Amino acid sequence: MNIFSLEYLKSLGETYAVPFVIHLVLAALVFFIGRAAARALVRLVERLMIRSKVDDSLRKFLGSVLYAILLMIVVIAALQQLGVETTAAIAVLGAAGLAVGLALQGSLGNFASGVMVITFKPYKVGDVVRAAGEIGKVEEIQIFNTVLLTPDNRKIIVPNGAITSGVIENITANETRRVDMVFGIGYGDDIKKAREVMAKIIADHPKVLAEPAPQIALSELADSSVNFVVRPWCKTADYWDVKFDLTEQIKEAFDANGISIPFPQRDVHLFQQAS
Fold this sequence. Notes:
There is one protein chain. The protein is of the alpha+beta class. Helices cover 52% and strands 18% of the residues. It has seven helices and ten strands. It has helices at residues 6-51, 56-81, 87-103, 105-120, 160-164, 191-204, 239-256; strands at 128-131, 134-141, 145-149, 155-159, 168-170, 176-178, 181-185, 215-221, 226-231, 233-235. The strands form three sheets. The protein has a five-stranded antiparallel beta sheet. The chain has a three-stranded antiparallel beta sheet with strand order 7-9-8, with helices on one face. A hairpin with a 2-residue loop joins strand 1 (128-131) and strand 2 (134-141). The protein is elongated. 14% of the residues are buried. The mean pLDDT is 84.
């Protein structure tokens, strides 16, 4: 048979070229239709997350991950239409995914913790928290980290995994706080008078709340002093103003009324040994 004859070339085309073109067209259709379907599904999922009030950064991240997974499935399906053996490719992708997962174990843990923080909201931007041994105002909640601004204006980036694995104290979560203070007077001072002086100072302070009522109670007969616990309530934003003001004003009032604030004392007894 003449290999250059038209009949032979036609038979080759019918045997190889036409099926290949058909598979190529099918593969292209699978890819473009699958990609469009993946985008539509991602948009649907994002709309559902918007309705559920999922954080924007988390929504965009999850949308990107979902689209990448769907696009990978579409590419594998298109390659199968071309007759490409994809079993080995899937195995390689699985092994690569496992290796990446092991390498990024810490980052993935921080990501999971970030999802928990964003979902359950133990704190929000603007709150003052104590977490992972650090205290500061929450400036930003990221997928992997939380950014804190300390009272002395330092920026601290704390991994979310370190935060969720320990105790989280949200200092400003409630509108009001109790200011806990201790004042000591001498054993020879008038307890009733000291109580009246402290009660007046507290009642006159404009930032101390009437409800809940402040507490002034004798709590301890210490070694060198009679100690009172003083517990007024105030708005959370006024906490330090109230604490500093009352400490100064009660000290001045004690001085003006002859009430002593004793310091630690020790009695020393000397015995002369007979010669």
